[in-house]
Amino acid sequence: MLTVSTVNVNGLRAAARKGYTSWLDGTDADIVALQEVRAEPDQLAAGVRDPEGWHRTIAPAADKGRNGVALLSRREPHEVRVGFGSTEFDAAGRYLEYEFENLVVGSLYLPSGEVGTARQDEKERFLDEFLRYLKTMREYAEAEGKEVLVAGDWNIAHAEIDLKNWKNNQKTAGFLPEERAWLTRVLDEAGYVDVHRALEPEGPGPYSWWSYRGKAFDNDAGWRIDYQMATPTLAGKAVSGRVERAPSYDQRWSDHAPVTIAFDWALR
């Protein structure tokens, strides 16, 4: 079996104080992808920076205190790559990749955007570049006999069943028609599979992010924006998926919850 978890930690230092470390100690995951780490390695306590039993890489943003992605694996990767060959985004703490003998796995923190601002323009540029990379990586993996899994905070809810209040968010970044169409291209044009949705096709949800404002968590008024996108062969080996939603608001250690998928497939 191969078990993979992905979670936006909303600041790793704060998450570690609230319960992330206990979660990591208890997880059955073989690979963990983290997003929005928002810390340099030397800013982290030793047990958080280098947890026992894990190989880890942190890719912080050049703009300190923002973004940042990380990967942890119980098996040592053959190669580690930061970024995806982008002049604009490779130093932005947006993407990190491990390569194994039969798998390439990435941790992705896609820009959130904001309608009518430069942040949305940035997001659109990222989408254009990253879709090209996803296609290139799919071709590379097929040629090398490997699978690909890109796990992370994709910051787009794909369909109406992926967020509670979809009617009120049709002009909101993260649910814009053009963003949703881009995710469709990831599936149809680049040939990836949304693994959790394949396992649970009906919905609604399961949601993975809830605003800290109001009663969003208590009312389960969430968004499903944390995905594991895999090449078809690997996706077809998925046997279970779960969102590790905290039992109560006061037990949350992030505004996201880990999304964990188990595959009947052996990592080499």
Q: Which key features would you list for this structure?
A:
single chain; 268 residues; alpha+beta; Deoxyribonuclease I, Chain A; 6-stranded mixed β-sheet; 12 strands; 24% strand; globular
CATH hierarchy: architecture: 4-Layer Sandwich
Spans of at least 5 consecutive residues whose pLDDT stays below 50 are none
Helix proportion range: 10-25%
Structural class: alpha+beta
Strand order of the largest sheet: 3-4-2-1-12-11
CATH topology: Deoxyribonuclease I, Chain A
- For the termini, the CA-CA separation is 11 Å
Mean pLDDT, to the nearest integer, reads: 96
The count of domains is: 1
Strand content: 15-25%
Number of helices: 7
CATH class: Alpha Beta
Radius of gyration: 17 Å
Write out the CATH superfamily name. Answer: Endonuclease/exonuclease/phosphatase
Along the chain, the helix and strand elements come as EHHEHEEEEEHEHEHEHEE
**Count the strands?**
12
Largest beta-sheet details:
6 strands, mixed
Structure described in brief:
This protein has 268 residues and is an alpha+beta fold. 25% of the residues lie in helices and 24% in strands. The chain has a six-stranded mixed sheet with strand order 3-4-2-1-12-11. A six-stranded mixed sheet has the order 5-6-7-8-10-9.
